[in-house]
Amino acid sequence: MHDLIHELAQSVFIHECLRVEDGTKLPSIIPKTLRHLAIETTNSDIIKKIGQFKYLHSLILFYRTSNQDLCNALTEIFKASRSLPLLYIRASKDLKIIPEEIGNLIHLRYLKIDGYDLTMLSRSLSNLYHLQYIIYYIRGVPSQSKVDDFLPSSTINLSNL
């Protein structure tokens, strides 16, 4: 019975939700109606294809390899997916910045970032007037000054935060 319900749920949500785990490929046909995407990968080619989904409502991204590829892919995603309200990025070491293009996500409400070497969020974050939550986790034991400098001072003007 459990298998039947699982298959029914998959067939109903196949056009709206997709989860891609490391070692798997993106399906050959992905509907443009895709709204929720979760990816855990080390493959930069998969990350680069996210920009084609312009109407995503949530993007959960776990990336564990060269963060220069991630930074370039994030730039493209931020340019294409302006209506994205939820973004969660978890990156391995060496991701030092989130691209300025994050300011293009004008409908972003929830932002969660989990990284090792991230030093500061982009100043363009202050353009995100709908932003309600910023959750960030800096790995290791950072000094208090590093934590204080992480958020740009301009975020104080975000009234919904």
Give the topology.
Layout (H helix, E strand, L loop, with lengths): L1 H12 L3 E4 L15 E6 L2 H5 L9 E6 L3 H14 L5 E6 L18 E6 L17 E6 L5 H7 L11
Parallel strand pairs: 1-2, 2-3, 3-4, 4-5, 5-6
List key phrases describing it.
161 residues, alpha/beta, Leucine-rich repeat, LRR (right-handed beta-alpha superhelix), 4 helices, 6 strands, globular, LRR_dom_sf
Number of extended strands: 6
* Percentage beta strand: 15-25%
Order of strands in the sheet with the most strands? 1-2-3-4-5-6
Mean pLDDT across residues: 79
Biggest sheet features: 6 strands, parallel
Percent helix, as a range, is: 10-25%
From the 3D coordinates, which CATH architecture would you assign? Alpha-Beta Horseshoe
Counted up, domains total 1
First and last CA, distance: 44 Å
How many helix segments?
4
CATH class: Alpha Beta
In the predicted model, the low-confidence regions spanning at least 5 consecutive residues are: none
Summing up helix and strand content along with how strands pair, one would put the structural category as: alpha/beta
Radius of gyration equals 17 Å
CATH fold-level name: Leucine-rich repeat, LRR (right-handed beta-alpha superhelix)
Shape: globular
Could you give the order of the helices and strands?
Answer: HEEHEHEEEH
InterPro entries: LRR_dom_sf
